[in-house]
Amino acid sequence: MEKSKKIVDGTTSIQYNANIQIILIGNWRERLGD
Predict the structure, then answer these.
(1) 3-state class (DSSP) for residue 11
(2) How confident is the model at residue 3 (pLDDT cuts 50, 70, 90)?
(3) CA distance readout (Å), 29 to 4, 9, 22, 25
(4) H helices then E strands: how many in the chain?
(5) Which of 2, 12, 15, 28 has the least CB density, counted as fewest CB within 10 Å?
(6) Is residue 30 scored above 90 in pLDDT?
(7) In the chain, what is the straight-line distance between the N-terminal and C-terminal CA atoms, in Å?
């Protein structure tokens, strides 16, 4: 059980980091557009 929980946590953190990067890139592109 612990092993499968760890895999889920790892996937969640990867997705969370990807979402942050998408937001940061979006903000950066908006600034370039100004």
Answers:
(1) helix
(2) confident
(3) 38, 30, 11, 6
(4) 1, 0
(5) 2
(6) no
(7) 50
Alpha-carbon gap, residue 10 to 4, rounded angstroms: 10
**Residue 15: both structure tokens together:** 């997705």
Q: Residue written as tokens 């100004």?
A: 34
Over residues 4-25, the pLDDT tens digits come to 666 677 788 888 999 999 999 9
- What does each C-alpha distance from 16 to 1, 21, 23, 33 come to in angstroms? 23, 9, 11, 26
Residue 13: DSSP 8-state: H
Tell me the C-alpha distance between 4 and 34, whole Å.
46
